[in-house]
Write a structure and sequence with these properties.
Order of helices and strands: HHHHHEEHEHEH
Helix content: 55-70%
Strand content: 5-15%
Strand order of the largest sheet: 3-1-2-4
Number of strands: 4
Shape: elongated
Distance between the termini: 55 Å
Structural class: alpha+beta
Largest sheet: 4 strands, mixed
Length: 301
């Protein structure tokens, strides 16, 4: 539209020069004792000019397709009311306006189509994103319902008749312990626990078939405490009299390996329903909690 605006400015300058010339002519005629009647070609000419200028403005700024019809009508009326003394000049600037309108209308129409197309595309994409977000929420809810039913059945099969399942928002692990405590209605932050898989890398056994000397252990600890691997070593070693200290080297199990063993992902490891029967060790601090209840990952990340 910038080129069209420059063209129309040139037209306006040319029109202003023509008007000045007409005013001088009119002044000379009045000085010579000639009177111009009201409603004559001059006034009609000026009125059509005003209407034409308004139409051109509308073409540039608002609706070129609709205003184009009105503009063409104004041009035809202007050509029909030419002053007899300046027919060529009137026709020239009228045609110049017509050229400016055609170019402006063409450009405005193209820009408008592109802008409208972009707007419609953005609107469609936004609607699709909203639909996808809604579908994602619904799928998550359905998934959580199915998972809760599965874990409830696993808990009953394990003899944990007092187990409760609570769904938490996706940003749960970004919350502080105090915020998690409030969300779960836990008695204290010390009742918030987790299941951590440890591997005895010095163990000669490749699996968990012997719970007294297993290669892997699922240790339940509080979030407010740290697992003391030295204490873990002494505990497991005490189950195998005559064993050497060199036979034990407990390290955190890599996340990928822990997932393959338990069937759960990070932050979702549960001590029940694991893919492999890994021996579970419970911290003595948890056993002394009052009320005797704990919250930990329920198998869903």
């Amino acid at each position: 539209l910038q080129d069209a605006e420059e063209l129309l400015r040139d037209v306006a300058d040319a029109l202003e020069g023509k008007r000045a010339s007409e005013r001088e002519t009119e002044h000379e005629e009045l000085g010579g004792g000639k009177e111009r009647g009201s409603g004559g070609p001059g006034e009609q000419h000026a009125r059509v000019e005003d209407l034409l200028g308004h139409a051109v403005t509308q073409v540039l700024l608002e609706e070129p397709e609709n205003e184009g019809i009105a503009l063409a009508q104004h041009i035809r009326r202007l050509l029909a009311c030419e002053q007899e003394d300046q027919p060529d000049a009137t026709r020239r600037w009228a045609l110049l306006f017509e050229q400016g309108w055609r170019r402006a209308a063409r450009m405005a129409s193209k820009e408008g189509r592109e802008e409208e197309g972009t707007r419609l595309l953005a609107s469609k994409l936004e609607a699709q994103l909203d639909d996808l977000d809604q579908v994602s929420k619904e799928l998550r809810e359905l998934e959580l319902v199915a998972w809760c039913r599965r874990m409830a059945g696993t808990a009953r099969a394990s003899g944990l008749l007092s187990a409760q399942l609570r769904s938490v928002p996706p940003h749960y692990y970004d919350l502080t312990l105090e915020e998690r405590m409030v969300l779960l209605d836990a008695p204290t932050i010390h009742h918030l626990c987790k299941t951590v898989v440890f591997e005895n890398r010095a163990c000669v056994a490749p699996d968990c078939s012997n719970p007294d000397n297993s290669r892997f252990y699922a240790v339940i600890i509080q979030y407010t405490a740290k697992c003391n691997t030295e204490k873990l070593l002494r505990l497991v070693r005490s189950w195998t009299p005559g064993s050497r200290r060199a036979d034990y080297n407990f390290q955190l199990c890599p996340e990928e390996a822990a997932g393959e063993l338990t069937g759960y992902r990070k932050n979702g490891v549960a001590p029940i329903g694991m893919k492999q029967a890994i021996p579970v060790i419970l911290s003595d601090r948890i056993a002394s909690l009052r009320p005797c209840f704990l919250w930990l990952g329920g198998g869903h990340p």
